[in-house]
From TrEMBL:
Domain of life: Eukaryota
Protein name: Malonyl-CoA:ACP transacylase (MAT) domain-containing protein
Source organism: Rhizophagus irregularis
Domain Malonyl-CoA:ACP transacylase (MAT): 40-349
Entry GO MF terms: [acyl-carrier-protein] S-malonyltransferase activity
Keyword flag ATP-binding: no
GO biological process, one term: fatty acid biosynthetic process
Entry keyword set: Transferase
InterPro entries, per database record: Acyl_transferase_dom, Mal-CoA-ACP_Trans/PKS_FabD
GO cellular component: mitochondrion
Length: 364
């Protein structure tokens, strides 16, 4: 009851307080006024049992999202997220719809309870791997119903692909220096071309100027990690506890399984620019979205370049919506002077909703 009363008080008074908060804006080449803000959504690795439970208990808008996910999937995803086991939740076919559902629930609370409007508040939307689907939902390019179906299929396709692989696979995070990123990419290509048949290593993610991830067969990943450290291109290599070699060619069967379903989904033009993982630039039209999502399964997640794209266009505020704070911590480390606003819990929403409720922007 105390939480509910506090939230009611906040809803009433945040509207009054918002009007006194200055909003920084800029005009793009078309003369359209936008805020210097991007909205960001996490991917796999952000999950934990109990995420979103406080949202469900306090907001009807969040309950609608979790209940819709249950209905679409035909099983109790909500129960698995709130009260399941970690071993159940980390199965990728469960992880992916769980993270998307929780992230969208937070967004719906901001929209329905606090008047948050992504079109006037943000210039760009982007999501890390799975999070790109959430970004498409947030920008009305994809319905929540279709997104839940697609990410469940994405997870199932990845699980099936891994079960059919006849080699051990691995992923490893590399701690690197910014000046070595380009050389690492070329080195991995060279290493891969020298491997015996059946072995593979590729650059899976470039998450920041200091963190990259490689993916492939276990022997190839171990060999590449050793070579990169010997050549002083990577300071350390840390094995990741993952169930699949994500974002490399070994996942091509999963991409193939996604292709037909993606073609049958209706995509709309995003209401604001969505920066895609594959190109680190905004999606140009709704017709290219299916192909980009298919490519994303095997392609490098160009996260560092995506954030750099934002920074080159004067973005200095990042709203990070979803479970855990991995992306927020990456951003804070790389851009310590920027405003990073992670929204994961009811407490976070209480803390930041006033400054994020940007319903009307000042005009030039």
């Amino acid at each position: 009851m105390f939480v509910c009363n506090s939230l009611n008080f906040l809803r009433i008074h945040s509207r009054k307080l918002l009007n006194s908060i200055p909003v920084r804006t800029y005009a793009n080449s078309a003369g359209i006024v936008k805020s210097q803000c991007a909205i960001v959504f996490p991917g796999q690795g952000a999950q934990y049992v109990g995420m979103g439970k406080d949202l469900y208990e306090n907001f009807a808008s969040a309950r609608h999202v979790f209940d819709e996910a249950n209905e679409v999937l035909g099983f109790n995803l909500k129960g698995l997220i709130f009260n399941g086991t970690q071993s159940q939740l980390i199965q990728t076919e469960n992880t992916q719809p769980a993270i998307l559902t929780t992230s969208v629930a937070i967004l719906r609370i901001l929209e329905s309870e606090y008047g948050f409007n992504i079109e006037s508040a943000c210039t760009f939307a982007l999501g890390h791997s799975l999070g790109e689907y959430t970004a498409l939902v947030a920008t009305k390019a994809l319905s929540l119903h279709d997104a839940i179906k697609l990410v469940r299929l994405r997870g199932e396709s990845m699980t099936k692909t891994v079960s059919q692989l006849k080699v051990k696979t691995a992923m490893s995070a590399l701690i690197v220096r910014q000046e070595n990123l380009a050389e690492i990419e070329e080195s991995i290509k060279g290493i891969n071309s020298s491997l015996p048949e059946g072995e593979l290593v590729e650059l899976a993610n470039v998450n920041s100027v200091s963190v990259a991830v490689i993916s492939g067969t276990s022997n190839a990943v171990d060999f590449a990690s050793g070579v990169l450290q010997s050549n002083h291109l990577a300071a350390r290599a840390l094995d990741l506890p993952v169930s699949a070699p994500f974002h490399c060619k070994l996942m091509q069967p999963a991409a193939d399984m996604m292709r037909a379903s993606l073609k049958n989904i209706k995509f709309n033009t995003p209401t604001i620019d969505v920066i895609t993982n594959v190109t680190a630039t905004p999606i140009k039209s709704s017709t290219e979205i299916p192909q980009l999502l298919e490519k994303q399964v095997t392609a490098t997640v160009q996260w560092q370049k995506s954030i750099k794209y934002c920074k080159e266009r004067d973005i200095n505020t990042f709203i990070v919506i979803g479970p855990a704070r991995v992306l927020a911590n990456l951003l804070r480390k790389e851009y310590p002077l920027d405003r990073i606003r992670p929204l994961t819990t009811v407490k976070d929403i209480q803390l930041h909703s006033e400054e994020l409720k940007i319903k009307q922007l000042n005009t030039l």
